[in-house]
Amino acid sequence: MQEKITPISELGEFALIDLLTKNNNQRNVASLKLTGDDASQLAISEGEHTLISTDMMVHGVHFDLGYFPPQHLGYKAIVSAISDIYAMNGQPKQVLLSIAASSKISVEFLELMYEGVYAACNDYNVDLAGGDTTTVHRGLILNITAIGTAKPERVVYRSGAQENDLICVSGDLGAAYLGLQLLEREKQVFHQNPEVQPELNEDYEYLYQRFLRPDTRNDIVKKLAETGVLPTAMIDISDGLSSDVLHITKQSNVGCRIYENKLPIHHNTTAAAEDFNLSPITCALNGGEDYELLFTVSPSHFEAVNKMAEVSIIGHITPKDTGCKMITNAENEFDLVAQGWEPFGSERG
Amino acid sequence: MQEKITPISELGEFALIDLLTKNNNQRNVASLKLTGDDASQLAISEGEHTLISTDMMVHGVHFDLGYFPPQHLGYKAIVSAISDIYAMNGQPKQVLLSIAASSKISVEFLELMYEGVYAACNDYNVDLAGGDTTTVHRGLILNITAIGTAKPERVVYRSGAQENDLICVSGDLGAAYLGLQLLEREKQVFHQNPEVQPELNEDYEYLYQRFLRPDTRNDIVKKLAETGVLPTAMIDISDGLSSDVLHITKQSNVGCRIYENKLPIHHNTTAAAEDFNLSPITCALNGGEDYELLFTVSPSHFEAVNKMAEVSIIGHITPKDTGCKMITNAENEFDLVAQGWEPFGSERG
After folding, report:
1. Which of A49, A296, B98, B227 could make an S-S bridge to A56, C-beta 3.0–4.6 Å?
2. Could you say which residues of chain B have pLDDT below 50?
């Protein structure tokens, strides 16, 4: 009998996760919330809940050793992992880092990478609390587990957005994606002619940095606490605004309207997008790896969030049957589609 | 200026870990014990401490997709991860599983693998509490983070062994290593002549099972608690008895004597070792992946551990300056040497 063979690319990441976790049963009462959010929630202690999240980063998929400085790689690995804890409105406390390194990776590379790891640990006040070190035939693979805490009543899920809630985003969008495009272009130029020195445009420094050494928004989590604003839903933008807003609307069982003219885009992002004949809006919607926080708040918090310098109100939550749409500057509507990061199947970009 | 390039193989895993963690500073008071044991200890709650451990498993390094049934791979991944929590005398509660799968891995393979994951979760009463799913160019990579709890006064480190303590080990040793040798031999036969059906010797069923679908010793942790025995040091045997006993003696700053005639070896292990012209004792000392518990207890607990059916007393702790030696049946002494699992440099075996 021929057994059925389905390529993973046929399903895609999220359908695969659904498939693989549909038989997952909960055995411990302390395991409060196991899937569907950025981090899992555990009731280990009485006063605070534990949040935990794990992420794998693979050379050739999530980063390219050809142009990724090791310090930045280490820094970004930690930032992208603890960003999931902030996205639950928690405080990251510890990280665990597993690495599988091929024989081409030198000790010096790893030392520099760990410099970046410790720099991020210092910046965000987390401890490297363990790990594993092994080998792989090719490339480099990292896995980062982030552990954090939050008061149970302060934990924010993806599933709490309500009709009429305001949709807010921190910082600006699309810059990391254009940083990646610039680095890929330089790599191709170098491959065609190794004599040519890469031309790193200083105007684009911001874009490189957003891709290679991103920050995560602990400041926003702090500001929300200080101003007494508890978001109804929150997620970090790792897959891209479209994908991530759809995670919230799907899990909250609502629709949304996003306004093109409200999307925060850095002027360097706009310039670089034009350089690549790309729409800056498309980059902002589908770019990913911004590590900004996307959250919804009750309309009663309009004034508080409107005052936050680093936060843009980009739309609002609507009833589910109205769908999830972007309103363009010309007042056309189009459906938001998850076109972000998809590890299986087509390559990013 | 020529930058220095040191191959990782020059250092080896443990020296690399020492190097990479020497600048690790602790920032959170709740991060009690970050390195040097099977799991890290976090004081998240007031009554119980949290133990956490992470392990990476790589195709071609830790397992071979050519002969590893997916259910067994999933089962073993969980068992090997939670074994680190038992080795701290804790109770595992949650696991997180990251996978990076190449396009050759089918959805059906992953479904079967997750069957094994859930079977192990059921057998050991732990929850799969999250994970990550991504892609890799070649093979399959798993990372498992295990989280457990223990009363602070019951946590056992590698560093507590005292002079005159008894050295105890659960179950038997060397079987998993010979299971691996048998599978590797069958793979070579198959490569030389794909027409030949692999000859799976039923007498060796136990050895295959010990390698492909190991158990972990929650029963021993339970028995220790019931009989009021608190080990002075404990570790699980993943690298091999020699390596792992040396982890304890190094961290406890002591020496040891192990007796050849006390090493627990299954009769099928002895038979298979002879088949390969190997010494069963060498297999027991250096084989690894037994996932048995190696622990030291005060001599006052002799009677209690001597009564435990699944525990062998194999030696005792001596002053550091006497070294770490095995006494053979012919009453010769030789130094114990860490020849177990080394991911960088020479291949296992």
Report:
1. B98
2. 1-2, 34-35, 345-349
Q: Is residue A103 part of a domain?
A: yes
CA distance A303 to chain B (A): 35
Nearest Cα residue to A291 out of A11, A79, A68, A77:
A79
CB B106 within 8 A of CB A10: no
From residue A138, how far is each of A102, B138, B324 by CA, in Å? Answer: 5, 8, 37
First-to-final CA distance of chain B = 40
Per the structure, the count of domains in chain A is: 2
Interface A-B: count of C-beta contacts within 8 A:
267
| Model ipTM value | 0.86
Residue where a domain stops, chosen among A154, A181, A209 = A154
Rounded distance, CA A25 to CA B118, Å? 8
Please indicate, yes or no, if residue B73 is contained in any of the structural domains: yes
The verdict on a CB contact (< 8 Å) between A7 and B125 is no
The answer to whether residue B138 is domain-embedded is yes
Instruction: For Cα atoms A295, A298, A301, give the angle at the middle one, nearest 5 degrees.
Output: 95
A22 touches chain B (CB under 8 A): no
Residues A176 and A134 in one domain: no
pLDDT, one tens digit per residue, over B139-162 is 999 999 999 988 889 999 999 999
Asked if residue B282 is part of any domain, the answer here is yes
Residues A205 and A309 both lie in one domain: yes
